[in-house]
Specification:
Length: 121
Amino acid sequence: MSGDNGKALLVGVPKLCPKWTKAVKQAASGKYERWYGDGTYVVSSKMPSAEELSEGEGLPIPPGTYRASGRMEDCYWERTSKGGEIIDNNFATSAQSITVTIAPSDGQFTSERCAVWKPVK
């Protein structure tokens, strides 16, 4: 959404692909529910700028409660401190639903081979 701040998308998508209009408007506003897949995320309520991301800053995950649902095999997740010490973790050989609460004081959250983590409302 840099350059023209997404104006080309906001004008073009409704005309070229109307079914995606709502999603593009939400993305442009920054007000949408974020989901998290495999990877390591820095715990932070602040979204980094595009420049920070290009400089190697980790993707953020806000503190809160998240749930992964679906058929999962060999799912591993861990919460670590800012120094990398494991606060909590689990390895599920087979699961259908896993819920994790990430504290504001956590440093990172890592997930491997789990379903998509969605915020619990």
